[in-house]
Amino acid sequence: MANCSSVDIVLLLTCLVFFSVTYVSSYQEYTVTNPKVCSPSGKKGKIKLYEPNDAAIVEETRSFDKWPGVIKFHCQFEVKDARGDNDHAVFAVIQNLQFRETEEGCLDYVEFQSDDEHKSGKLCGKMGASIPRLIKEGVEEIAPYAFVSSDEIEVTIHVATKRLLPGETLDLKIAFTSARHCYRGRDSLPSYLINCGNSKHCINSIYANDTIFNCPFSGCSDEGGCPIAVPTYHRPSVGTSVTVGAITTVLAAFLLFFACIWVLRHYRKLCWAGDYNSQREVRMTPVSPVQSGPDSMEAGTARQEHLHGAVPSAPPLDSPVSTILPDKDMPPPYESLFPATSR
């Protein structure tokens, strides 16, 4: 297997990071164990809704699958619209909830509270927007699994210190969405907004038919069509309704990623590209220190022949060679100056 240089690895990681961030979800997604939501230190978590991610999902994944009940789970966090003006509101819609209840009341519960101290009461049992129900046309009251606040919502999630019995399960998924005034300063409803079933609150149209229930009113559902009364069903494991924009984004990300790989391979910047190893060997061939003598000359000649091909050989010995004439200014021989000594 070819060895990749650090430059090759950086180039590949750049392509992968670009591909991963090209498609961005419309939701901020958190689990109940995320420190930003439920801090181990007991500090109240905070989630801010802002464009383009002006919706968030908080859900339990596998934290409560085998709840031992050794300690209680008590978490509080706030969900707030980052703009904080009178034109916006915050919706909370429970997608799925399955918490234990007894004859005395809720053993585990979820509770919502608005900034004006209005509370939803403890919610438990089995409920949620994704549970099959019949929408009553014309009803604009808040559904029992939803909550609305003009500024922020304080959420409390409590799981009791009691282990799960065989057959018991805990499930929780809540969607929070920033809503805005539909007609504030406008004569008609903009195309990027959809009405949630009343004359005041609208949400971004990107949240329509995305298999997440965002509207909190009983008389209308952003997943079933407004204002026609239709039944809604449990969210499928794989979304059956995907917007054209999302599909286009994913396809564009794939094309750009493979184009990046092709360019790197074409210019032989990848460790599996053709002739990469041969070029690497040539670039990294060690050069020995300069030596004198016939051995070094022969080694240099052999190296030149290896890198550049054969070089012309030396001229034959019998070729004419210019004779060096003696210099006229050379001193006379020693014998001619001292004849006696030479004898």
UniProtKB/TrEMBL annotation:
The residue range of the signal peptide is 1-26
Region span, Disordered: 286-343
Return the protein name: Uncharacterized protein
Keywords per UniProt: Membrane, Signal, Transmembrane, Transmembrane helix
Q: Which domain of life is it from?
A: Eukaryota
Task: Tell me where the transmembrane regions lie.
Answer: 242-264
